[in-house]
Amino acid sequence: MSLQHERPPSHLFAVRLWREDLGDGQAEWRGQAIYVPSGETLFFRDMAELADFMRRFITPAAPVNDEHFSESDDRTIIPDRPRDVEPIGCQS
Question: What angle do CA 24, 30, 32 make, to 5 degrees?
Fold first, then answer.
């Protein structure tokens, strides 16, 4: 008998981020997300929009027990933001 390892369900997104010059020395983070299997695209200005877009495609099969992930109240698994990354929408 051979042992087969099942892969957990996964979803593939492509995310592009850039800083948009607003003039007067101000800039804002902008982004584009693509759900690769369907090609559906979202242009966004804050991480909440990106998270909402991803939630539409992700249905968690089971709770995740991993220090790099946290569960929101609606049981959607969301990766924690790295500590050294400035959130979108913050101006420097």
Answer: 155
Tokens (6 digits) for 84? 């050294």
Contact 36, 13 (CB under 8 A): yes
For every one of its 92 residues, what pLDDT tens digit does the chain have, with 9 covering 90 and above? 556 678 777 899 999 999 999 999 999 999 999 999 999 999 999 999 999 999 999 866 545 555 554 444 444 444 554 455 455 555 44
In the block, residue with structure tokens 């790295």: 82
Spatial distance between the Cα atoms of 87 and 83, rounded to a whole number of angstroms:
10
| Amino acid letter, residue 74 | D
The model's pTM is: 0.56
How far apart CA 42 and CA 34 sit, in angstroms, is 6
DSSP 45: S
DSSP state, residue 63 = -
Q: DSSP letter for 54, please.
A: H
